[in-house]
Amino acid sequence: MAKKTNYREVLKDNNFKKLLASNLINRFGDSIDSIAFTWLVYDITKSASWAAIIFGMNVLPNIFLQPFLGAFVEKLDKKRVVVATHILRTLIISLFVVMYLSRLVTPAIMVAFTLIITSVESFNLPASSAFVQSILKKENVTHALSLSQSLSSAMSLLGTAFAGVIIAKLGVQTAMFIDAATFLIAGILTFTIRQERKKPELAVINETDKKESYIDLLKGGFKYIINNKIFVNYLLVAVIVNFLAVPLNALQAPIAEDLYKLGSELLSVMGIGASIGAILGSIILPKVMEKLSAKAILVVNGAIVGVGMFILSLGGLLNGAKIPGFLLAGFCFLLMMTAISLLNGSLNVQFMKMTDPDYMARASSVFGASCTAAMPVASFIVSAVALKLPTSLLVGACGLLSVLVFLIVAASKMQFEDKSQEKESEVLDAA
Questions:
Q1: What does the alpha-carbon distance between residue 86 and residue 84 come to, in Å, rounded to a whole number?
Q2: Phi/psi at 260 (nearest 5 deg)?
Q3: What's the burial of 60, exposed, middle or buried (CB within 10 Å: 0-12/13-18/19+)?
């Protein structure tokens, strides 16, 4: 009889505990920085259009660089890449704060720093995916990822709750310095994680062989994703949904300021609602995956996100009323993030289980970049449309279209889980 995995068993792994601590510290800083930077963008530009442009720039490097960097990272020590990128982001964010204090930051400079930070992240993401997979035992993946996601969301809730106070009392620069410090601490913790190392090959490789080897790795990553029907199905849905979700992600400051007329306080309320929803979703993820098929999880929760967007767009009807506005927006983000947490968690678990470790860095980079491919295009469209149409109409229309997309997916014959993996798991449990 196979030993059943639970959270207690997962926490006996010292490497996982260090990785978890690194993620929690990092998430705390990011949750503070996300509110600080979101408000800073709108405060400096005073434009929903600029907010959409910067959001688009934020994902652009991940789309164009990540697939190529994933193949490059495949040949490197994943742990060293993760540590190096954490330290590099510490330096970049610190430099940005210094420039902000010197009053040198303009919208163009914000775009430049956004591109630089995300480019570094494009190195980090594939290396991190492969590094995490190398640490976790396959039977622990679901509970380990669920625990990490739920505790990270709890830390985001804590950071979001403190963000308003930190920014109000100590300034936005302090919030961003905190984010920089958490990257440094996360890098140090990651450095202390031990992993089995493969002996390096001593053969001398000439420059031509290196180039051919890289090209083969790059092609292999694309082929690995394209040849997997389940991954392709997820990609098709993800591209459409991420396109429609851009107004929700890019226009949070205009939603708070123009639609609800409640200012930066509402950003914290929305962040708290989102964090509670993420915690709830990640906690119930193992049980939900036991009860529902991957397709059912996708369809139900995708539709819930669309409904949440539409309800959120009705905030203008409250005429700036504070308590009703806080309750409505907070509830919508709680609802949407619970659903998004279940969607992302289910996908991450399946991807981790289904992907060959030798392909993890490049496959995850190709998959991640492809999922977000439509977001920059959507951001520039939203930037142009935001000059003509109100924020409420953009968010509400995209919410209704999202519901329609998932109704179509429900009626289709698209598959979203590997039946052979499921049967293999049943055999192991019965052994």
A1: 5
A2: -90, -20
A3: buried
Over the stretch 208-240, which tens digit does the pLDDT of each residue have?
Answer: 444 446 677 767 778 888 888 888 888 888 888
The rounded distance, in Å, linking the Cα atoms of 93 and 201 is 37
Mean pLDDT score of the chain, rounded to an integer?
80
What whole-number distance in Å separates Cα of residue 300 and Cα of residue 242?
Answer: 17
Which one-letter DSSP state was computed for residue 357? G
364: buried, middle or exposed (CB in 10 Å: 19+, 13-18, 0-12)? Answer: buried
Domain boundaries, the chain: 13-210+221-430
Amino acid at 325: G
CA 333 centroid distance within chain: 16
**What are phi and psi for residue 5, nearest 5 degrees?**
-80, 140
Q: In a 10 Å sphere around its CB, with 0-12 CB exposed, 13-18 middle and 19+ buried, how is residue 99 labelled?
A: middle
Q: Say how many Å lie between the first and final Cα of the chain, rounded.
A: 5
What is the Cα–Cα distance from 171 to 147, expressed in whole angstroms?
Answer: 33
pTM score > 0.70 for this model? Answer: no
The CATH fold assigned to 13-210+221-430 is Growth Hormone; Chain: A; (1.20.1250)
Q: What CA–CA distances, in Å, run from 209 to 205, 213, 267, 426?
A: 6, 6, 52, 44
CA distance 381 to 397: 14
Smallest CA-to-CA distance from 255 within 30, 34, 33, 38 is with 38
Residue 102, helix vs strand vs coil: coil
**67-92 confidence digits (pLDDT tens):** 777 777 877 888 899 999 999 999 99
Q: Tokens standing for 283? A: 């906690």
Helix (H) or strand (E) holding 135: helix 107-135
Does residue 259 contact residue 316 with C-beta atoms inside 8 Å? yes
**Contact present, 399 and 313 (Cβ < 8 Å):** yes
Residue 89: HSE in the Cβ half-sphere, 13 Å Cα cutoff: 31
Please name the residue ranges forming H helices in 315-390: 322-354, 360-371, 375-385
